[in-house]
Amino acid sequence: MTTEKILLEFNKVSKSFGSVQANNQVSFAVKQGSIHALIGENGAGKSTIMKILFGLYQADHGEIRLRGQKLNILSPIDAKKHRIGMVHQHFMLAGPISAMNHFFLDEKPTSLKGFFTPLPAEKKLQQLQALSERYQMAVPWQEPVEKLSVGIQQRLEILKILYNEADILILDEPTAVLAPQEILALFSQLRELKAQGKTILFITHKLKEVMSLADTVTVFRKGEVIAQKNIEDTNPRDLSELMVGRKLIELVRSPAMPGERLLEIKNLSFKTQGRERLKNLDFHIHSGEILGIAGIEGNGQSDLIQILVQPKAHEKAVSGELRWKTNSILSKSAKDLKEMGFSFFPEDRLTQGALVQSNLKENFLLGQHRSPDFQKMGIFKPHEISRVTTEEMKKLDVWPRNPNAIFKNLSGGNQQKLVVARELYRKPPFLLAAQPTRGVDIGAIEKIHFEMDLLRKNGAAILLISSELDELMKLSDRIMVIRHGSLLGQILHPPFDETQIGCMMLGAV
Amino acid sequence: MHDVGGCVIRSLIGLFVGLAISLSIVAFAGENPFSVFMILIRSAFGSPYDLGLALFYTTSLIFTGLSVSLAFQAGLFNIGAEGQLTVAALAAAATGVLLPEVPSPWAPLLATTLGISAGALWGFIPGWLKSRRGSHEVIVTMMMNFIAAALASYVVLDLIKNPESQNPESKILGPGYLLKDYDFVQKFFVDSPANLSLILALALSVLIYFFLYKTIWGYELRASGQNEVASEMAGISSKRWKTLAMTIAGALAGFVCVNEILGSSGRYKIGFSPEYGFVGIAVALLARSHPLGVIASAFLFGALQKGASDLDIETATITKDFARIIQAILIFSVAGATLIDFSWIRQKCFFWKKKGVTDANFE
Fold first, then answer.
1. CATH 3.90.1720 describes domain B47-292
2. What is the nearest CA distance from A49 to chain B, expressed in angstroms?
3. What ipTM did this prediction achieve?
4. Domain residue extents for chain B
5. Per-residue pLDDT tens over the stretch A148-180
6. DSSP characters for B136-147?
């Protein structure tokens, strides 16, 4: 084997966007036939360097060498010529078109004859079946893409690259959207590709995956390469501290002290547009408790969130009971619930929880702008707003520490920390935390988890809806699994079994 | 607003670039750009009368500019300021014609109240349809403009026509309705139609600024405009705010009746508005929907309006339409200037780099 041969070499590559230095003198090497992980927090520059390799950006300085030859890649088309392919975080697929036809979208007839007699469908199918056999990746070729699971869609993206004979595969956060079992399947496929001599570059911020899959790893921080290591010589703790640049404090959960029953849901169903979105949900949450809801996205979590945030807007479509302490809150509006102190971390902070064009003060006010802390007779108290916002930003370590900064200019982690700061400011008795750490870096996750545990210790009832199993298992006192709008049988207590939850999520019980 | 200084500098750069481009087009048309520029300046500032006329246009444009801005802030595009000001002027004029005996302090108040109420109604209808039925406000307000114009023709020409005039206009309002008695503004601009409404317009701008940026209601309105979903989830009824915003926008456009009917002409003249409602959109765009920015931007367009009519007379090749071209170029260049990235310029500029100026945005 020639695994020791250097295939790709990055040599002092720099790239800046305006005043932001995205990559600064980045140098590292990738061996032929290896799986190489690139890790780092959001904005550390790992995606940028891959986009430079793929031709989406041009480097300001420095060079990339492929098999010792200097590369000059000006566009993804050049990258394709050098047999480099990339699977983006967001798939580039067209919903109603069949899996098969995605391979022939850019088909151009080379002759007049070819124009009138395109490759017959059976021939195409044969070609593709040979492809999927060769790499052992089965795909239902005739189905429209929108009917395929996310895992299969991703498989399709990888096959598209392999169809173009790529030798170097770049995968941008490939596991972000997958269920645990799908991740295992992906990993075994990637190992198979490696065995066939492909080189894989793998962007992630999940260290467990790095440890189980990669051969070598490059750690990025603030646009620079901090370390390059062989997997045998490192461990997750070591890597996370390299990523964050400081020691991390492991969350030590405070002991469970469940109190009175606060939120209670009985036989709750939700039907819209003739479809039953939620079926007979039954659960309750005590004070001082975090109840986790696991499940693959799109199994009714969003509907449950909508009902809990603005029950009144959905009153007609809901049947069953929704109680706070002993009072029904089924006909309460979002405003009523805010007045009762209910808080929530939105699933998608940009569309559901922020005014992206506005500054941090105005975002901090959203939902609590009527609080007497911030206004008197309808007129804002600007100094008070500035003071409190700055103070709370300090508590959650939001950067830049400037309440006049515009929300959209913050990194995902800082945006989320601001949302968390806002929602926890009034010490809510109930918190609905939907995907509390999505797209957030390790340092921020640490902070957010700490704050949620603190709130729990202070006696709040917390409903945690997350697609991250690790997060659920770390924070929850109990876990339930949701699938097709129903809660599956038993409620799980710690110690949680990852495989069991994963099986329930996929419906393989 | 954030970074006010930067905003002003960017707008000024845009303004100068826009003027430079406009004047070079003048050169293509065969005129001397310098003399054209001088005519423009003279026609707006040459005498108290000239300035008064420019300020008269400015006043109406402040009202419509505020109207469009407020709707913008609520995420709505108010194309209907023209119709709103038409029905407002019609209501004010009809009041004055039909109830000529009302004495002075009450008469203008009554006419104004009815006028802006009519404008508010003309805004409320599209706003309500938008939040109730999802009808697009652009289509509805546009239709409302036609209805308003037709209604005005009918009422003025068939019901309250001035029989002594050859022009298509209404009878003259009762003497108690005119603002002349209180008007100190007019004394500065003798013979021009500038009037007390200018002060009203400036005060309204400040008031709307205060409302939008300093009160929880203004906050709710802006939040609804920026992100309807997030606002609803935060307990803000964005649908109600959209209806309300269109209603207020209609009332603001309605204030034009004070300037036109009560303040100057004292009657309803068909075609009195040189499309204030539509130029108001340009005013709001240039001001980036900021109520205080509207003042400056309305003055610019008011002066252009005045300048254009003088150019039409004083030059051979340039017509009134040229003002429209300048307006369009100014909007493009000022909007383009918002993209100027000072930090980038600083970074690239060797001189500044050497001096070690740190980048404030990077902090």
1. no
2. 21
3. 0.85
4. 47-292
5. 777 788 888 888 888 888 888 998 888 877 777
6. -HHHHHHHHHHH
